[in-house]
Amino acid sequence: xxxxxxxxxxxxxxLGCGGTIARFAAEGKQxxxxxxxxxxxxxxxxxxxxxxxxxxRLMEMSREAGRVVGATEVRHFGLPDNRFDSVDxxxxxxxxxxxxxxxxxxxxxxxxxGDLNIDHALTFRAAMTAFRPTPGTAVQALYAYEVAxxxxxxxxxxxxxxxxxxxxxxxxxxxxxLMAMAVYADELRGFPHPRSAEGITSQARERGSRIGxxxxxxxxxxxxxx
Length: 226
What we know:
The chain is α/β, with parallel strands linked by helices. The protein has six helices and seven strands. The protein has helices at 12-26, 51-69, 89-103, 118-130, 174-183, 197-210, and strands at 2-7, 30-37, 73-79, 107-111, 141-145, 166-169, 216-224. α3 (89-103) packs across α4 (118-130).
């Protein structure tokens, strides 16, 4: 089985479904991660030096995080950080359509459309378009994942509201998710920030308690073919 995980920024893929990637990889499935944006440039002022170095560093971190969870491949596309709204939506759609042709996924996981971050919202919109259920497509389901400090901090004020209906048991893979996030050391924060090791663990425990397991990741079904 081929699975595609679409992320706006490096670390979104691990925060949203790192445990699920690890589980799929352990089960012998092929998991491709597509990271659309640079994930760093917005932290620097106009003309600041060192942006390229930081972008390259994040790309290497994402590859290492991918190795930790067992992803088959991590691809990068260099869209401007926190400025996806400066790019034609069609351009993002075409990137995803090309990935779809290359990978031919049966399952696609993408950012949630009601997140605080504009890049997440536009990634969701583009994925909805690129992976619409056309006749003959290999895609059987499209899911949206949550990202700590972006999904919940929208406080359900942006549509669609994140309403998870699918939960993946990651009890055996939570530690691997945390190891992958540790690769992104600069992206982690101290507790009680939701993007802390404790916060990530607490979220996984809470999601797991909903379905009677020790830890889980939660997803919202966009569409599914049975």
